[in-house]
Design brief:
The chain is mainly beta and 286 residues long. It has three helices and ten strands. A hairpin with a 4-residue loop joins strand 2 and strand 3. 34% of the residues are buried.
Length: 286
Amino acid sequence: MMLRKIILQILFLVGAVTANAQSDNSFVHLGEVGVHVGAGHYFGDINSNAGINRPKFAAGFFFRKQLGGYISIRLSGEYLQLGYSDIYSKNTVQRVRNLSFNSNVWEGAITGEFNFFNFRPGIEGFSFTPYLGLGIGAFSYDPYAYLAGERYFLRPLGTEGQGSALYPDLQVYNPIALCVPFTVGVKYAFDPRFNVFAEFTYRFTNTDYLDDVSGLYAPDAFAPLPDGSPSPAFLLQDRSYESGITIGTKGRQRGNSLQPDSYASFKIGISFNLETYRCPPSPRGR
């Protein structure tokens, strides 16, 4: 009786392992579609010390095509609100400079991702993985600031002399720029249908005008209004007068043109798995 019991237990375990292997071999994880919300942050001439004290809203969606348990390609779209002000700086010169901006950013990117663990939702032991991603993308931005309660978009004003006949070498910057997103994340499959995840993405960009600050002051590029009063462009290109000291003399450094701006986002989200099953091979002779 004891031997029979042992044999039955062995047969049961062999059957369970075989069934699990068949399930594992037949399951195909095609990819995911997902959405996320979180916070975005800007880094650049106005936030030169990489402070993370002014996060703003971010949200997006993506489609991920799985190329195996470890490798995938993701297409994503993201919206971020970015902004900062010199008043948050610990640097006295920056606080006197008194510049600020806000911008809505729309981004599209394609990213290659690598899972540290084999990720196969619905299969025990394969439901969690950290992952890394590196990609290329493009984004639109349009910095603006407020003066006397009214919003002004800064790019058309040419706050550093762009587009002025006095500075023919300075062109109005492009509102479309490139980015290289680098992502670190983790995800967990609750069941075969959906996952939850958290990730951080930092973008290197090829523009230094995300905040509209890059080069030198050019106060002579802004003619007064017909009544002799300063134009909004003149008042927005140098706001140090609001701090009681005017520093925006012609040719003085306004920003650091050697270091492009960047931005990042942290988000949490949910994704839904796209899956199928391999059909078992047909018996020979049929």
